[in-house]
């Protein structure tokens, strides 16, 4: 993942559009959609089945990288208030979008209940509180305390983007300090089991912001490095092979021997077993190893040659509307599968149609952007391996 750029007089590298990054973001979005249509036959071949991490990790990591590329250069150039205001405005749009999706998700499953008379459908994505006590559930949803199933990543994204002005303020002074504070928060949350509260459902946020912010900040730090230098990462042959070995061990454990039992080492499970809610150390290392392995492989060079009109590139460029579209379509797919539509033919047809809808949305937004004069930003840029 590299950002096309040129060095400016101020020492900050000016940015162009990175088609490779957009392609990988599109890949993550497509994979998230497939996984969200739970139980479909294509879910078994997504990369979550071959290691410790999944597309959600890539989504958050890329979001941090993209945030640095989109905002931090202008922030450093003196537009601090304007950029902070723009970022907070985006956070507000994420918040309102999430609330709209909660209502839409409830409507989709309510339609299934009306059609079948099966009230048990509400339990599929934890909609019982919304149906049994709408007033309390809506208040809790507005406070981000109540998060139905599949509707828990946008609240995390809202927190990450909402806290971005603070991150940029610290990073403008010292990237190592920003990383140190973020890492300390991740470690404290993981070892201490500290999480944001949820209500009325127990268990805390599915994506604990205190933990997942570290992956976002790591991506942000790489993005800032790409702004200041000609590359985001350096190539080390021993490190690349170490990443390959770690990915191989993860594959062996997940597909072969199985994960070791809890307490297999005299250390907290947070440090020894892959776990999603608190982004445990093995899971964090896996997504970082995967990205490093790919970015310094021939696969990255191949992807870098893709056109900006490539379906995945367009999806990645318009990640938020594409993600929201995929979320509504995937929830609808889950509801259909729960009401009698099932089997490999349905799965493949529905997932393919859902991906086509997302590509169509991305293509429409790309065409609209070009008509408004944003076509140049979408052009691919030639960059060397980063």
From TrEMBL:
Pfam families in the cross-refs: OpgC_C (PF10129)
Answer whether the UniProt record assigns the keyword Protein transport to this protein.
Answer: no
Which keywords accompany this UniProt record?
Membrane, Transmembrane, Transmembrane helix
State which residue ranges cross the membrane: 55-73, 94-114, 150-170, 177-198, 210-227, 239-258, 278-299, 320-336, 348-367
Q: Which superkingdom is the protein from?
A: Bacteria
- What is the recorded name of this protein? OpgC family protein
